[in-house]
Design a protein that fits this description.
Distance between the termini: 53 Å
Mean pLDDT: 74
Number of domains: 5
Strand order of the largest sheet: 4-5-6-3-7
Number of helices: 42
Structural class: mainly alpha
Radius of gyration: 30 Å
Helix content: 40-55%
Largest sheet: 5 strands, parallel
Shape: globular
Length: about 900
């Protein structure tokens, strides 16, 4: 009889890398030491669930995006890896992301990069069909723990990253502020459901930009949440965010968020929704079913159906910043909410907030103009700020207080900026009378105030500030603080050739605190560093989060600080008004179109830093060897077979010969009992995560993809690494140095990586042991420079900017071939003209010479390495790839 205790206690279940090896294959078979079949993953799923804690749905192949981040992290809890970084690397497949392996960076940095890659994948899906995106901020979605796993999976189809990001990033109101709203007669009648004939369930907070509408809405929602458990209503909220991704500023994101919140509590209508979800799942193809894409019309229709009949509880909804919705949809949204609140059979109450311009007529909707009521809040805020500084030493501080209040016109943001400026000048030694005189010339309007802030910049500072705001405003994705270290380094004059030179320069930012101070000073306080917050950090909202107190990895490991403008009015000041000219009045070109070209110029400078030379040379050498072998009719070289054998056993004698100190080579239990083994050699970072590609054909699979599913896979630009294991697609990136070490001695001869002094003295020179190379400076901006480069090209073309300087630079100094090599998913040897045409860049056609193949333009892979084109034609797709320092190809 089989000894199940031996099976349960097998060391195989405690290793980090075996987690993905268990989940990914469709069929995994288990054998005893004597070769007797124990069972497979399906027949043993209950036992496997008890051993590992992995839900049976995950073992059956349900998309892992259906499981919360917190839950997936728990699957790996207590697992052991030989290298500490593998604790993070072994999760790449679980979160379906790509990541270069940099052993020696430490587990904290590894988890930081893991979190970044999850965030990047979501950010770069802007403009693409929304599928199940990697989890970002919330360690698990707000689903009551009483819901079954299938119910949670259903609700998960509505959830999306950043769903609550805007609300969570709003500051808490100052003490003793916002109280006026909850005493306002119109608001109280609406909230309590009184006199519906006056409002028909809809009211609107209106006001100029910066009056504090969003802070009021956040506080109103917080109070509603605190009271809902002991009341007759449910509540939900959505905060539009024009600075965020597509879903954050679209009606589709609005309905997904509201339904996710409401259905988690309304079990009656959840049953109706689950039937709709099952019908949708049933009708989808295998690939599409993993996404279960919802369309706005079907969600809007279902939302309407929820209020077509009487309900036991009222529903109160808050929708903030409707003006930040897609501009073409604002009026239709206003009409929708007016119609549904007026016609609903159930008791539905909706509070909108919107700017007073553009003017949108809302019939039978009482309006509360914020600037007419927030004077007390502004006075309270100013008094609190001055009491902590000026008031303690200057008896005339009230003169400053009164003048600020008179000029504020109810614009809270204006007050915040002016008070900060007054306090800074006070600290610099200015007296009260000097400050009063300066307040006399401060513009009353917010945009005029923005312009005045830059009036004191000298010429050199203007150049730097212009480049700074071009990056801050025009970047196609939110950029994190660690990326800004390198942005600030390479937008300065003079241009530096390497990170090494930057570290030695006067402009080196040694830590984040120093960088934050520089950003605040240069931007005059208009750009800030925000830390994305977890749901549980929002006081008073734990009632709607199943994760309250659960904690999250993102504050400990994740780089969550994003550099962004302080308010949407700042972004509009630069994009729609005269912001760039206020920074540099002498700039004669279109600051937006040529701003995109300026960003591209910085990207080209960055890819040519010396720290990347060794990586580029190594990738080139690997591909040259492959081309040489193909020319001679030899099969493509593969690294030593890293067999992932789950269904094989070995004898006790073989076990005794194993290395006792290798945790990554699982030692099975000694003795005659059956056991599991995995004959994987010591860690070899073959790709984004170290599990089978076609090299690992020993994992038994019993799934043959249909021709239609193969076609679907070919259409997917960036196949998930996790799917690679399931589908046995092409080899993933490998570790260059270890691959070269495994080449047979009889392999065809090509130029080696140079062994000259410059190479040996390079900060990125390989170690003598030949282990994976680790950059002394991690090139944090490399991913953006390769993935967003041609997005900026398209945006520049839309503005009519002349791309000739960029094209000329791509044609020189090896930049085009170097970019192709670092991008990695673009075929080597592709002509710039053809790639530009593929990207839809019609303006590039006349500026690109007829021949733009990298080889024909002497575009070497580095400054000291000469490329020699093999006589054979280039394969259509790279046979192999070198593990990169940035998973640029994964960003589309």
């Amino acid at each position: 009889m089989y000894q199940w205790q031996t099976f349960r206690s097998s060391r195989w279940f405690k290793r980090g890398w075996t987690l993905q090896e268990l989940i990914a294959p469709y069929t995994v078979e288990f054998f005893s030491a004597k070769g007797r079949r124990i069972g497979d993953k399906r027949s043993l799923e209950r036992v496997l669930h008890e051993i590992t804690g992995i839900p049976t749905e995950a073992l059956r192949g349900i998309p892992l995006s259906e499981f919360s981040r917190r839950e997936r992290m728990l699957w790996a809890e207590g697992r052991i890896t030989k290298f500490e970084e593998d604790r993070a690397y072994s999760l790449l497949g679980i979160f379906e992301v790509h990541l270069p392996l940099i052993y020696g960076e430490g587990v904290k940095n590894a988890f930081r990069r893991l979190e970044e890659e999850i965030d990047k994948q979501a950010a770069f899906e802007r403009g693409q069909p929304q599928v199940h995106q990697p989890l970002k901020l919330d360690p698990c979605p707000a689903v009551p723990p009483s819901l079954s796993q299938s119910k949670e999976t259903c609700l998960q189809s509505l959830w999306f990253p950043n769903m609550n990001n805007r609300r969570l990033n709003l500051e808490k109101p100052a003490e003793q502020t916002c109280l006026w709203l909850f005493e306002h007669g119109v608001y109280r009648d609406w909230f309590l459901g009184r006199d519906r004939g006056k409002h028909y369930g809809l009211i609107c907070l209106k006001g100029k930009p910066g009056t504090g509408k969003s802070i009021l809405m956040k506080e109103a929602f917080r109070r509603a949440v605190l009271g809902q458990d002991e009341s007759d209503y449910w509540t939900a909220a959505f905060f539009f965010n024009a600075k965020g991704d597509e879903l954050e500023s679209s009606p589709l994101g609005l309905f997904r968020s509201l339904l996710h919140q409401l259905l988690s509590r309304d079990l009656e209508y959840f049953q109706h929704f689950r039937r709709l979800w099952r019908e949708k799942e049933f009708g989808l193809s295998e690939q599409e079913s993993k996404a279960c894409l919802w369309l706005e019309p079907e969600l809007r229709s279902f939302f309407q159906s929820m209020f077509a009949h009487q309900r036991s509880k009222r529903t109160i909804i808050f929708i903030d910043a409707l003006d930040e919705c897609d501009p073409k949809r604002i009026r239709s949204q206003v009409s929708f909410w007016r119609e549904i609140t007026k016609s609903a059979k159930a008791h539905l109450s909706v509070c909108l907030s919107i700017r007073d311009f553009p003017h949108v007529t809302i019939p039978n909707c009482p309006k509360i103009f914020v600037e007419d009521y927030n004077s007390h809040d502004i006075a309270t805020y100013v008094k609190q700020k001055f009491t902590l500084s000026i008031a303690a030493k200057e008896p005339q501080w009230e003169l400053l207080n009164d003048k600020i209040l008179r000029k504020s016109a109810g614009v809270f943001l204006w007050v915040v900026l002016v008070v900060d400026d007054v306090l800074r000048k006070w600290d610099d030694g200015d007296g009260v009378h000097s400050l009063l005189n300066q307040l006399d010339v401060v513009p009353d309007e917010l945009e005029a105030l923005y312009s005045q802030m830059f009036s004191s910049l000298d010429e050199r500072a203007r150049f730097f500030a212009l480049r700074f705001f071009q990056w801050a405003i025009l970047a196609v994705k939110p950029l994190r603080l660690h990326e800004w270290h390198h942005i600030m380094a390479f937008i300065r004059q003079p241009i530096l050739p390497s990170l090494f030179e930057w570290r030695r320069s006067d402009n080196f930012t040694k830590d984040d605190d120093q960088l934050e101070k520089q950003i605040r000073s240069l931007s005059k306080g208009l750009v800030e560093v925000k830390t994305n917050k977890d749901e549980v950090q929002d006081e008073g909202l734990e009632a709607i989060s199943v994760c309250a107190g659960a904690g999250s990895l993102n504050l400990e490991y994740g780089e969550t600080r994003v550099v962004q403008v302080i308010h949407e009015s700042v972004r509009e000041f630069f994009l729609q008004k005269t912001g760039f000219f206020a920074v540099d009045p002498g700039y004669a070109l279109d600051p937006i179109g040529y701003g995109h070209l300026t960003i591209m110029t910085t990207c080209l400078t960055y890819i040519n830093i010396k720290e990347l030379d060794a990586l580029v040379r190594a990738r080139d050498l690997v591909e040259k060897r492959e081309e040489c072998r193909l020319t001679e009719g030899l099969p493509a070289h593969k690294p030593n077979d890293t067999r992932c054998i789950i269904d094989t056993s070995i004898s006790p004698k073989a076990t005794d010969k194993r290395s006792e100190d290798s945790l990554d080579e699982a030692s099975p239990l000694r003795g005659p009992e059956p056991h599991l083994v995995d004959r994987t050699p010591s860690p070899t970072p073959w790709g984004s995560w170290r599990t089978p590609s076609p090299l690992h054909r020993d994992v038994k699979r019993k799934r043959t993809p249909s021709p239609s599913s193969r076609r679907i896979r070919r259409k997917i630009e960036q196949a998930s690494v996790f799917e690679v294991l399931k589908e046995s697609s092409d080899p993933k990136p490998i570790d260059m140095i270890r691959w070269l070490e495994t080449l047979p001695t009889g392999d065809c001869v090509v130029d080696p990586i140079p062994g000259n002094e410059s190479a040996r003295n390079s900060p990125t020179a390989p170690s003598a042991t030949g282990q994976s190379q680790v950059l002394e400076d991690y090139p944090a901006l490399l991913s953006y420079t390769t993935s967003a480069f041609f997005t900026h090209a398209r945006l520049a073309e839309e503005r009519g900017a002349d791309p000739t300087p960029i094209i000329n630079r791509l044609m020189q100094q090896g930049s085009w071939a170097r970019w192709v090599t670092l991008r990695e998913d673009v075929p080597r040897g592709v002509e710039l003209s053809k790639y530009a045409a593929d990207q839809g860049l019609s303006s590039w056609a006349d500026s690109i010479p007829q021949s733009t193949r990298p080889e024909e333009n002497n575009i070497a892979q580095s400054r000291d390495y000469k490329y020699t084109q093999p006589s054979s034609s280039k394969p259509a797709k790279r046979a192999g790839s070198v593990a990169s320092f940035s998973s640029a190809g994964s960003h589309g």
